[in-house]
Amino acid sequence: MFSFVGKDLFIENVKVLDIEKKYKTATYIYSKNKIIQNYKAYHTPLAESRRSGLICFAVKTNPNVSLLKILAKLKSGTDTVSGGEIYRSLEAGILPEKIVYAGVGKTAEEIEFALKKNIFMFNVESFQELEAIDKIAKKLKKVAHIAFRINPDVDPDTHSHIVTGKKGTKFGIPYDEALHAYAFAKKHKNVLPIGIHSHIGSQILDVSAYKLAAVKIKKITDELAKNGIQIEYINCGGGLGIAYKKDQKVPTPADLMKEIFEVFDADKKFIFEPGRSIIGDAGCLLTKVIYEKSSGEKNFLIVDAAMNDLIRPSLYDAYHEIIPIKDVKEEMFKTDVVGPVCESGDFLAKDRVLPRLKQGDFLIVTCTGAYGAAMASEYNLRPHLAQVLIDKDKMTLIRKRGQYKDLR
Ligand code: LLP
């Protein structure tokens, strides 16, 4: 997505400095063609495998409607976790029959909304939720397609905040209650179990964890088949990691599919719910150095993006590569890159070795397409950032910068 032409950093065919000239900083920037490339990295191996399946982009990673429209054109589905995400998916042109809906706390209003919109499938996370869906579906004279989200109790070796498939997390139905759950569903006339779902975590860099989960899920589907319950759809969740560090080796969607397809029979249909691996490295954050200062042994670059714009470093100690937009041979120095928010926890990078940037210089925080703008807030009454989409040599404003008069 990035390339230096001479001394200038480009995104696709646009000079980053020109984006700054037109839209100022701080600004989230996305590359349309990188999104398409990342989507195809799922679509192509799936098509070549001759397995039947559906790719459902996880809207929580980035709900910008212009970005969802790109995916809708590619015939993607969506993985949603709220009524709002279902609404946004439909607004973007995603077909209802390609929308799956997970989440541990679906409200009656959300369930009714989803049923009225005829979404494809509910990923059900508790016995009470199943009863609620059945009751509302009955009232609406509908039959809801469901999958139980099963917690397979595997450890994907990622940050504790984003592990979901281990015993003791709030997600899904415990592995040893899975058969009971499907038997329970059979007693309800307005739900039809057609799938099984497991999502074990996020930023997963070792696909063997998926295989462990798949083997456990296969055991359940085999047992269910013996009891006369045929599961058509295997939903493998999302979670594939991306390279936050330069030259980091990461598994591809094809690697992931290989592990999973080995486990299941050819007649099964598959759902994948990638988020980060579609949009993560297709987005970045452009920011400007407002001030430089030192305190004791430490250097600080104070920039115009902060934890309210990108919370991942503060919340998960996440590492995002930082690159200056000019390739100049400056001496290197060690610095923290921090924002203007009034908390010591407000940082984008700590003890980072960078070229000696100065007041007024611009830098890019890479791989912020996923869980960047999506998790932003107006903390400290800082308006939402502008968002710009690059398509070859074209720039389009896809979200206007927030204004003081709109602050809540
Ligand atoms: N499906 C389900 C049911 C999920 O809960 C998630 C993410 C996904 C799919 C998409 O996972 P992905 O492919 O993006 O890893 N805010 C955190 C990540 C939270 C992940 C929540 N669930 C972060 O910034 O790292």
Write a concise keyword list for the protein shown above.
single chain; 408 residues; alpha/beta; TIM Barrel; 2 domains; eight-stranded parallel beta barrel; binds ligand LLP
Quick description:
This protein is of the alpha/beta class and 408 residues long. Helix content is 28%, strand content 27%. It has 11 helices and 21 strands.
Architecture blueprint of SSEs:
Layout lengths: L1 E4 L2 E4 L2 E2 H8 L3 E5 H18 L2 E7 L6 H9 L3 E4 L2 H9 L7 E3 L6 H9 L4 E4 L2 H13 L4 E8 L21 E2 L3 H9 L4 E7 L10 H19 L6 E3 L17 H11 L5 E4 L3 H4 L3 E13 L2 E6 L8 H5 L5 E3 L7 E7 L8 E9 L6 E4 L20 E6 L2 E6 L9
Parallel strand pairs: 4-20, 5-6, 5-13, 6-7, 7-8, 8-9, 9-10, 9-11, 11-12, 12-13, 15-17
Antiparallel strand pairs: 1-2, 2-3, 4-14, 14-15, 14-19, 16-19, 17-18, 20-21
Helix pairs in contact: 5-6, 8-9
Please tally the β strands and state the result. 21
Identify the quaternary structure here: single chain
The percentage helix is 25-40%
CATH superfamily of the largest domain: Alanine racemase
Strand content: 25-35%
What is the domain total for the residues? 2
- The CATH architecture classification of the largest domain is Alpha-Beta Barrel
Q: Compute the CA-based radius of gyration.
A: 22 Å
In the CATH hierarchy, the third-tier topology of the largest domain is known as TIM Barrel
Q: What ligands are attached or bound here?
A: ligand LLP
Helix tally equals 11
Given the C-alpha coordinates, what overall shape results? elongated
Low-pLDDT residue spans: none
